[in-house]
Write a structure and sequence with these properties.
By secondary structure, this protein is α+β, with helices and mostly antiparallel strands. The protein has 16 helices and 12 strands. Bound molecules: protoporphyrin IX containing FE (HEM). The site of protoporphyrin IX containing FE has 27 residues, from helix 12 and helix 16.
Length: 419
């Protein structure tokens, strides 16, 4: 039994990545929302356990009260970090205001709706190329051919790094985010000893390659100035706003966060539309519905399943006593199916209104920096893909990533008839 409730959590281990391979265990989250919305979840040593927050309203409350639920005093993942690790792995994600604001301001404007809107024509051009190449094949795996290709190519454009680097950047992202899946990483965190990489993001040795790449790109901009994200980070560093480690961590955060998450959104969106042919048809008949569909696809996908905060003081949530230092894990994947917020939450409905999902966070200081970019990419992808499709069907089941953090699809075999 767990603290303060009568739910037996030995039936529902939210930590074991194996429990997400077949499907998201929505039935567990539903039970938790109903019977134990704030519950102490034990964890294997060396971790000490965490409060699992599964209701929408509570997730919002935690994220808005950053003074009580800090991003800085612990980490934002399940892994418990000591002071050295925290220092060496720190990004804006792991800071509280006011330092957080300083870090975020370095490139906030470049990711605003207007900032990313400037790339719309370019993004569309790349999308068309990638889609046409894939559709010619007739039968293909949607992930490597389409969803994995696009976000990284957009990031290459925004970072003005060579498009030829895209495959390498994809592999690095896979290895870091896929650090619980043997298909992507040789250093699977819960299966092999990763102590040597303890000071790197995701405990991934690949982070070192990403760091070297970031430094090389920055140095190139010293020789030949550019107006891009990497140059902005370089300037911030030269002005003393970032140290060397913060610079490389910043780059890695943008590259990894911007690539993997959007990919999975696009794949889940395609999978959901194939599974709901009436909605696919409606979107094809009326493309003006696509922006609303992107919101529903985002809710449906919820690629980031949780983040964590650490309590800075003793407090109470739904009658549970949370103590200073406790880990508090907010489950977006559950909040986005909360029946108190979303009518018929397990129904994929491209016209859902309102649709205040928390896929990019509920607001508050850490609201996803890349939300505008991710939505722009997803919208353009479906605007260009759907008119080119006469039909699309699965030729096998979607294969899911082994991860308790990312709701990822790694393979989606399809057959298409172009329009
Ligand atoms: C569908 C795609 C994406 C999803 C689902 C997603 C999700 C999230 C979530 C849940 C957060 C934390 C929100 C919170 O704590 O309240 C976040 C933060 C962040 N995201 Fe995204 N993200 C996506 C795309 C991107 C892209 C394209 C980029 C940029 C290239 C990006 C960069 C970031 C950064 C830098 C943060 C940290 C913000 C901060 O701490 O202030 N994300 N994202």
């Amino acid at each position: 039994m767990s603290v303060g409730t009568r739910i037996d959590l030995s039936r529902m281990d939210l930590v074991n990545p194996d429990n997400y391979v077949q499907a998201i265990p929505h039935e567990w989250f539903e039970e938790l929302r109903r019977d134990a919305p704030v519950i102490w979840h034990p964890e294997p040593a060396p971790n000490k356990g965490f409060w699992a927050i599964t209701r929408y309203e509570d997730l919002v409350a935690v994220h808005m009260d950053w003074q009580t639920y800090s991003s800085e005093t612990g980490a934002v993942g399940l892994e418990e970090l000591d002071a050295e690790q925290l220092e060496l792995r720190k990004t804006m994600l792991e800071t509280d205001p006011p330092r957080h604001r300083e870090l975020r301001n370095i490139c906030n404007k470049r990711f605003s709706a207007r900032g990313v809107g400037a790339y719309e024509a370019f993004i569309r051009e790349i999308a068309v190329k990638v889609i046409d190449r894939a559709l010619e094949k007739g039968e293909f795996d949607f992930v490597p051919e389409i969803s994995r290709e696009l976000p990284i190519r957009f990031l290459c454009a925004i970072f003005t790094v060579p498009q030829d680097d895209a495959p390498m950047l994809i592999d690095w992202g896979d290895a870091m985010i896929g650090n619980q899946d043997p298909e992507f990483s040789a250093a699977v965190v819960d299966q092999v000893d990763t102590e040597a990489y303890r000071n790197l993001q995701f405990r991934s040795p690949v982070a070192l390659e990403v760091f070297e790449y970031a430094k090389r790109q920055r140095d190139l901009r010293l020789e030949e100035p550019q107006d891009d994200v990497i140059a902005a980070l370089g300037v911030a560093q030269s002005e003393g706003a970032l140290n060397e480690r913060e610079f490389v961590n910043y780059f890695a955060l943008l590259m990894i966060a911007g690539n993997e998450t959007t990919r999975h959104t696009i794949t889940h969106g395609m999978d959901a539309l194939i599974g709901n042919p009436d909605q696919l048809r409606r979107l094809q008949e009326d493309p003006s519905l696509i922006p609303a569909a992107v919101e529903e696809i985002s809710r449906w996908a919820t690629p980031v399943m949780h983040f964590r905060r650490t309590a800075t003081r003793d407090t109470e949530l739904r009658g549970q006593r949370i103590r200073a230092g406790d880990k508090v894990v907010t489950w977006y994947i559950s909040a986005n199916r909360d029946e108190d917020t979303f009518a018929d939450p397990y129904r994929f409905d491209i016209t859902r209104r309102p649709n205040e999902h928390v896929t990019f966070g509920p607001g508050g200081p850490h609201f996803c920096l890349g939300a505008h970019l991710a939505k722009l990419e997803t919208r353009i992808l479906f605007q260009e893909l759907l008119p080119r499709l006469r039909s699309i069907e699965l030729t096998g089941p979607a294969q899911r990533m082994r991860s308790n953090f990312v709701n990822g699809i790694k393979h989606l075999p399809v057959t298409v008839r172009p329009a």
